[in-house]
Amino acid sequence: MIDRYAVFGNPIKHSKSPFIHQQFAKQTGQELSYEKLLAPVDGFEDAVTIFFEQGGKGANVTVPFKEQAFVLCNQCSASAQLAKAVNTLWLDENGNLIGDNTDGLGLVADLERQFGDIAKKSIVILGAGGAVRGCIYPLLDKKVNRIVIANRTKVKATDLASEINEPNVKGMGLDDLSADTDCDILINATSSGVEGKVPYISNEFIHAQIKAYDMFYGSEKTAFIEWVEQRGITQSADGLGMLVGQAAESFTRWRNVKPQIEPVLLQLRKQML
Ligand code: ATR
């Protein structure tokens, strides 16, 4: 029987994970199956338990189950612990359920692919939700100079920074961003893109040397990228590469071989046009 993998979510119809992992398998000569599984909103635990009992080798988890997956795990990575969310599951040799959160590693890989080395760079992240939580440790591991978490609701950003408790991680309100805020890379990790909106930030803070990254992606240019381009920023990228990057990290955990991101990203982009 070939090794079986799956992604759990609700909804799950539009997930690109099966395509990405099947391409990785082809590329690295691995034989495996990867399917989308729709779990009932109140039935995630049962669905995952049955999947692994029936011999499933590994799973991805997407909205709205990442927090439930974290609770289910017997053991998980530091990134997953800070995020309190898990996107990758597998069993160890003793049958323990292991969880990781590869979103942040996917982000870091894509930032470096698009913008070069991020060591010593000053990062400003917009948002303070789960998407931000998953990314802080992978960014710190890259020895960035400073991370500012800027959120519409300021207290969420300052609370998260206190929880992280690192001298170079600071929380503030979106409206505290000013010409004095050092920024090499600006990351949009708010969910504003879902509604085609842009988080409010002052024009004074934006300058043309900033490299902008939107975790959101779509078949067209995102609202955030349009907005930064109108303000003179010429280097920007959306989050499709992060999606492929986090999948590559999951694949590596499961199969012990690292697939190439670029060819799969190109295919995916073509499909979305
Ligand atoms: P996720 O897991 O995707 O991070 P989340 O935990 O619901 O989702 O967090 C959503 C984030 O997007 C929050 O930081 C939210 O800001 P608030 O804490 O002030 O609610 C931010 N957000 C959503 N819509 C926004 C908008 N239109 N402008 C600015 N920030 C927005």
UniProtKB/TrEMBL annotation:
<dbReference type="Pfam" id="PF08501">
    <property type="entry name" value="Shikimate_dh_N"/>
</dbReference>
<comment type="function">
    <text>Involved in the biosynthesis of the chorismate, which leads to the biosynthesis of aromatic amino acids. Catalyzes the reversible NADPH linked reduction of 3-dehydroshikimate (DHSA) to yield shikimate (SA).</text>
</comment>
<dbReference type="InterPro" id="IPR041121">
    <property type="entry name" value="SDH_C"/>
</dbReference>
<feature type="binding site">
    <location>
        <position position="62"/>
    </location>
    <ligand>
        <name>shikimate</name>
    </ligand>
</feature>
<dbReference type="InterPro" id="IPR046346">
    <property type="entry name" value="Aminoacid_DH-like_N_sf"/>
</dbReference>
<dbReference type="GO" id="GO:0009073">
    <property type="term" value="P:aromatic amino acid family biosynthetic process"/>
</dbReference>
<feature type="binding site">
    <location>
        <position position="215"/>
    </location>
    <ligand>
        <name>NADP(+)</name>
    </ligand>
</feature>
<keyword id="KW-0560">Oxidoreductase</keyword>
<protein>
    <recommendedName>
        <fullName>Shikimate dehydrogenase (NADP(+))</fullName>
        <ecNumber>1.1.1.25</ecNumber>
    </recommendedName>
</protein>
<comment type="similarity">
    <text>Belongs to the shikimate dehydrogenase family.</text>
</comment>
<comment type="subunit">
    <text>Homodimer.</text>
</comment>
<dbReference type="Pfam" id="PF01488">
    <property type="entry name" value="Shikimate_DH"/>
</dbReference>
<feature type="binding site">
    <location>
        <position position="239"/>
    </location>
    <ligand>
        <name>NADP(+)</name>
    </ligand>
</feature>
<feature type="binding site">
    <location>
        <position position="87"/>
    </location>
    <ligand>
        <name>shikimate</name>
    </ligand>
</feature>
<dbReference type="GO" id="GO:0019632">
    <property type="term" value="P:shikimate metabolic process"/>
</dbReference>
<feature type="binding site">
    <location>
        <position position="103"/>
    </location>
    <ligand>
        <name>shikimate</name>
    </ligand>
</feature>
<dbReference type="GO" id="GO:0009423">
    <property type="term" value="P:chorismate biosynthetic process"/>
</dbReference>
<feature type="binding site">
    <location>
        <begin position="127"/>
        <end position="131"/>
    </location>
    <ligand>
        <name>NADP(+)</name>
    </ligand>
</feature>
<comment type="pathway">
    <text>Metabolic intermediate biosynthesis; chorismate biosynthesis; chorismate from D-erythrose 4-phosphate and phosphoenolpyruvate: step 4/7.</text>
</comment>
<keyword id="KW-0521">NADP</keyword>
<dbReference type="GO" id="GO:0004764">
    <property type="term" value="F:shikimate 3-dehydrogenase (NADP+) activity"/>
</dbReference>
<dbReference type="GO" id="GO:0005829">
    <property type="term" value="C:cytosol"/>
</dbReference>
<feature type="binding site">
    <location>
        <begin position="15"/>
        <end position="17"/>
    </location>
    <ligand>
        <name>shikimate</name>
    </ligand>
</feature>
<feature type="binding site">
    <location>
        <begin position="151"/>
        <end position="156"/>
    </location>
    <ligand>
        <name>NADP(+)</name>
    </ligand>
</feature>
<feature type="domain" description="Shikimate dehydrogenase substrate binding N-terminal">
    <location>
        <begin position="7"/>
        <end position="89"/>
    </location>
</feature>
<dbReference type="InterPro" id="IPR006151">
    <property type="entry name" value="Shikm_DH/Glu-tRNA_Rdtase"/>
</dbReference>
<feature type="binding site">
    <location>
        <position position="246"/>
    </location>
    <ligand>
        <name>shikimate</name>
    </ligand>
</feature>
<dbReference type="InterPro" id="IPR022893">
    <property type="entry name" value="Shikimate_DH_fam"/>
</dbReference>
<dbReference type="Pfam" id="PF18317">
    <property type="entry name" value="SDH_C"/>
</dbReference>
<dbReference type="InterPro" id="IPR036291">
    <property type="entry name" value="NAD(P)-bd_dom_sf"/>
</dbReference>
<feature type="active site" description="Proton acceptor">
    <location>
        <position position="66"/>
    </location>
</feature>
<feature type="binding site">
    <location>
        <position position="217"/>
    </location>
    <ligand>
        <name>shikimate</name>
    </ligand>
</feature>
<feature type="domain" description="Quinate/shikimate 5-dehydrogenase/glutamyl-tRNA reductase">
    <location>
        <begin position="112"/>
        <end position="192"/>
    </location>
</feature>
<feature type="domain" description="SDH C-terminal">
    <location>
        <begin position="239"/>
        <end position="264"/>
    </location>
</feature>
<dbReference type="GO" id="GO:0050661">
    <property type="term" value="F:NADP binding"/>
</dbReference>
<dbReference type="InterPro" id="IPR013708">
    <property type="entry name" value="Shikimate_DH-bd_N"/>
</dbReference>
<dbReference type="InterPro" id="IPR011342">
    <property type="entry name" value="Shikimate_DH"/>
</dbReference>
<keyword id="KW-0057">Aromatic amino acid biosynthesis</keyword>
<keyword id="KW-0028">Amino-acid biosynthesis</keyword>
<dbReference type="GO" id="GO:0008652">
    <property type="term" value="P:amino acid biosynthetic process"/>
</dbReference>
